[in-house]
Amino acid sequence: MSVPCFVAGTLIATPAGEVQVELLRLGDLVNTKDHGPQPIRWVEFRHSTFGELTKTGQYPVEFKPGSLGLGRPRRRLRASPQHRILVEGDSFAPARGLVGMSKVRSMTRCRWVRYHHILFSKHEVIYAEGVLTKSLLPGPTFLSGCRITDRLAIMRIADKSSESARALLSVSEDKRFVQQRTSATFA
């Protein structure tokens, strides 16, 4: 299953400072771009081995410091290929569509990865390693791959609209975006 999420170790901005995603808990406040600090309503992780990554092709995407503009990210940012980054024009671009830009690569030699999900009452724009990115948007594909207990919990929590906080670019739109800019400008 393809899941948009952060790799363990990613720093997420909170009112108390940046916190590693794996240390965030239910009820912790996270800084959002549009609505200020918001409490986490659901948090979960998924561990994938080399065999699973090879079978699914869901290798993490690594953004080296400065790959998304001056000082962004501040440290390396690693996320799943479906995770979305806020780009110029106020749209979310999938990480896999940005592979090939300077200092952005698919981590195909990754031996294992732990992907972390953060859900709020509604879809939010949050800060990861100083980059504007997104929280979990629990769409049908994600929900169909969840355990029934998680699916029911998410459906009780999430805003019924399941509307994205910003426009979502397709991978082909994302690639055109990257091709049009040798050094793309990011939000």
Quick structural summary:
The protein is 19% helix and 30% strand. It has helices spanning 50-56, 95-98, 140-144, 148-157, 171-180, and strands at 6-7, 11-14, 17-20, 29-30, 38-39, 42-49, 61-63, 77-79, 84-87, 91-94, 104-106, 112-119, 125-128, 131-134, 167-168.
Topology:
Layout: E1 6-7, E2 11-14, E3 17-20, E4 29-30, E5 38-39, E6 42-49, H1 50-56, E7 61-63, E8 77-79, E9 84-87, E10 91-94, H2 95-98, E11 104-106, E12 112-119, E13 125-128, E14 131-134, H3 140-144, H4 148-157, E15 167-168, H5 171-180
Parallel strand pairs: 10-15
Antiparallel strand pairs: 1-12, 2-3, 4-5, 6-12, 7-8, 7-11, 9-10, 13-14
Structure description:
The structure is a single chain. The longest helix is centred in the C-terminal third of the chain and has 10 residues, at 148-157. This protein is 19% helix and 30% strand. The strands form 6 sheets. A 3-stranded antiparallel β-sheet has the order 1-12-6. The chain has 187 residues and is α+β, with helices and mostly antiparallel strands. It has helices at residues 50-56, 95-98, 140-144, 148-157, 171-180; strands at residues 6-7, 11-14, 17-20, 29-30, 38-39, 42-49, 61-63, 77-79, 84-87, 91-94, 104-106, 112-119, 125-128, 131-134, 167-168.
Sum up the structure in keywords.
globular; 3-stranded antiparallel β-sheet; alpha+beta; single chain; 187 residues
User: How large is the count of helical segments?
Assistant: 5
| Biggest sheet layout | 3 strands, antiparallel
Rg computed from alpha carbons, rounded to a whole number of angstroms: 15 Å
Biggest sheet strand order reads: 1-12-6
The end-to-end distance, rounded to whole angstroms, is: 29 Å
Low-confidence stretches: none
Mean pLDDT: 84
Percent of sequence in beta strands: 25-35%
Q: What global shape is seen? A: globular
- Work out the number of β strands: 15
**What is the ordering of alpha helices and beta strands?**
EEEEEEHEEEEHEEEEHHEH
Approximately how much helix is present in the residues?
Answer: 10-25%
SS-based structural class?
Answer: alpha+beta
